[in-house]
Amino acid sequence: DSGVTQTPKHLITATGQRVTLRCSPRSGDLSVYWYQQSLDQGLQFLIQYYNGEERAKGNILERFSAQQFPDLHSELNLSSLELGDSALYFCASSFTGKNTEAFFGQGTRLTVV
Amino acid sequence: GESVGLHLPTLSVQEGDNSIINCAYSNSASDYFIWYKQESGKGPQFIIDIRSNMDKRQGQRVTVLLNKTVKHLSLQIAATQPGDSAVYFCAENTGGFKTIFGAGTRLFVKA
């Protein structure tokens, strides 16, 4: 158990809908990272927050957004969902703002039908 | 469990043999490299890291080699065990806040 908690574990929704994925980082970690993992694209960095502020952006679509709350948990919002958004979404956390020895959650499997 | 990367390169080794997993990285400015292991149904797990001022680093049963001349990274696993079966990713970091992951290699260990 990495100490990073993601909910829900599985999510099935229809195209055009909006979902929210939640991540609780390890106790004491200030930085949260979101990744998308699809069968054909591997692990793709989406966005990073550090102590409530956005720190870095990767290949995140405009339909997606995220935030980190004062208690350091984070949410990833995916809207206007398309079939191609079906993937595993991972959250990772680390104490520093650099992705060194980041600990990953078990992921949320999103299926868009 | 979840299937990750159905079309990944695959390495099949006999239990007890040594495994070598290779990775080519893209950015010559990358100064920090990490190997992750991902078992079916789980998130990636940190294995070992190396900084660009080193060419070799050893951990418990694992060794990472870095060749900056050809931008190549390898992970050596000694005495491979069935529990080592997983997908292995290399990742590079340029000193910023983004880490770029490689496509991964699937390791099968035959008992």
Characterization of the model:
The complex is a heterodimer of chains A (113) and B (111). With 113 residues, chain A is mainly β. Chain A is 0% helix and 53% strand. Chain A has strands spanning 5-7, 10-13, 19-24, 31-38, 42-50, 53-57, 64-68, 74-78, 87-94, 103-104, 108-112. In chain A, the strands form two sheets. In chain A, strands 2, 4, 5, 6, 9, 10 and 11 form a seven-stranded mixed sheet that branches. A four-stranded antiparallel sheet of chain A has the order 1-3-8-7, with no helix packed on it. Chain A is globular, with a radius of gyration of 13 Å. Chain B has 111 residues and is mainly beta. The two termini of chain B are 20 Å apart. Chain B is globular, with a radius of gyration of 14 Å. Helices cover 0% and strands 51% of the residues of chain B. In chain B, strands 1, 3, 4, 8, 9 and 10 form a six-stranded mixed sheet that branches. Chain B is built from no helices and ten strands. Chains A and B meet through strand 5, strand 9 and strand 10 of A and strand 4 and strand 9 of B.
Gist?
The complex is a heterodimer of chains A (113) and B (111). With 113 residues, chain A is mostly beta strands. Helices cover 0% and strands 53% of the residues of chain A.
The amount of helix of chain B comes to: under 10%
Shape of chain B: globular
**Can you write the helix and strand succession of chain A as a string?**
EEEEEEEEEEE
Radius of gyration based on Cα positions of chain B: 14 Å
The number of E-state strands of chain B comes to: 10
Number of strands of chain A: 11
Unreliable runs of chain B, pLDDT <50, ≥5 residues?
Answer: 1-5
Main interface: chain pair and counts? A-B, 29 and 26 residues
Instruction: Please describe the biggest sheet of chain A, giving its number of strands, its sense, and whether it closes into a barrel.
Output: 7 strands, mixed
Fraction of residues in helix of chain A: under 10%
| Distance between the ends of chain A | 31 Å
How does the helix and strand content of chain B classify structurally? mainly beta
How many helices of chain B? 0
In DSSP terms (H or I, runs of 4 or more residues), the helix count of chain A works out at 0
Proportion of strand residues of chain A: over 45%
In terms of per-residue confidence, which ranges of chain A show pLDDT below 50 for 5 or more consecutive residues? none
Structural class by sheet pairing and helices of chain A: mainly beta
Mean pLDDT of chain A: 93
